[in-house]
């Protein structure tokens, strides 16, 4: 019933769901050797992938704030991270992620797809579908860069700000005991954040075209990271 485990339960559900959106279809395609998906199936996969991917983003930011309060305000932790605030943060994460996924899905539905409908990916990714369209994709690209960028940098900014603040607090009176305690409190979360954002940034920010390296990086944050999260947090316990 502590905040960290309340957030972890939602992260675990989101991770299972994120992998379930892409992995079963990928395995079926590998087994049957028929690499195809219907239009409705593709749009549905896009929506749920963006929904659970967004939830992961928001929850990692919320958990970073939780770790910040635990280390920087330990005596006020129970009063700050009360049950009502935890519920509000999780409900806000779900609502924002639903709105984010719905916006991009509705913008995708208005596009037309003409001759070549081969997606150079193992699932219906937003960037790959936008490149595939033969309609004017200016509005889609504008919303991806503005709204998508705002959400990404908001979450990443909260995580970065929380850890900068934690670092300054620890370094004021440096001691081995404090460093070990901070690593024990934040190590698991920091490792998961590095794995998730590192691979996602490699795919969406440092790549101009889809190739095998991008697909491998996508597998890292859509399959490997969700699979590793339970091991990382269990080993910490």
Quick gist of this model?
With 237 residues, the chain is mainly alpha-helical. The chain contains 8 helices and no strands. The longest helix is centred in the middle third of the chain and has 35 residues, at 138-172.
General description of the model:
Helix content is 81%, strand content 0%. With 237 residues, the chain is an all-alpha fold. The chain has a single domain (3-235), classed as Rhodopsin 7-helix transmembrane proteins (Rhopdopsin 7-helix transmembrane proteins, Up-down Bundle). It is elongated and about 65 Å long. It is found in: Cell membrane.
Give the rounded overall mean pLDDT.
87
Strand content: under 5%
Fold-level CATH name: Rhopdopsin 7-helix transmembrane proteins
Number of strands: 0
CATH superfamily (homologous) name: Rhodopsin 7-helix transmembrane proteins
Write down the overall geometry: elongated
Q: Work out the count of structural domains.
A: 1
Please tally the helical runs, counting DSSP H or I stretches of 4 or more residues.
8
CATH level-two architecture: Up-down Bundle
Distance between the termini: 15 Å
Structural class: mainly alpha
Major sheet details: none
pLDDT < 50 runs, ≥5 residues:
none
Give the H and E element order: HHHHHHHH
- Helical amount: over 70%
Rg over CA atoms, rounded to whole Å, is 19 Å
Q: In CATH, what is the class? A: Mainly Alpha
């Amino acid at each position: 019933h502590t905040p960290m485990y309340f957030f972890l339960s939602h992260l675990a559900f989101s991770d299972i769901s994120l992998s379930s959106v892409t992995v079963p279809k990928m395995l079926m395609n590998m087994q049957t050797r028929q690499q195809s998906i219907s239009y409705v199936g593709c749009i549905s996969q896009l929506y749920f992938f963006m929904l659970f991917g967004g939830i992961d983003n928001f929850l990692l930011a919320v958990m970073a704030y939780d770790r910040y309060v635990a280390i920087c305000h330990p005596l006020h932790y129970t009063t700050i991270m009360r049950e009502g605030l935890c519920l509000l943060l999780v409900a806000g994460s779900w609502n924002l992620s639903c709105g984010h996924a719905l916006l991009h899905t509705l913008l995708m539905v208005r596009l037309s797809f003409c001759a070549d409908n081969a997606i150079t990916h193992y699932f219906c990714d937003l960037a790959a579908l936008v490149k595939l369209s033969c309609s004017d994709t200016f509005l889609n690209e504008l919303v991806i860069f503005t709204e998508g960028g705002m959400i990404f940098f908001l979450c990443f900014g909260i995580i970065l700000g929380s850890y900068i603040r934690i670092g300054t607090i620890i370094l004021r009176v440096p001691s081995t005991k404090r460093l070990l305690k901070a690593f024990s409190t934040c190590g698991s979360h920091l490792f998961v954040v590095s794995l998730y954002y590192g691979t996602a940034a490699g795919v969406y920010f440092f790549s101009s075209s889809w190739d095998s390296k991008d697909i491998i990086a996508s597998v890292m944050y859509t399959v490997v990271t969700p699979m590793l999260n339970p091991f990382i947090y269990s080993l910490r316990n």
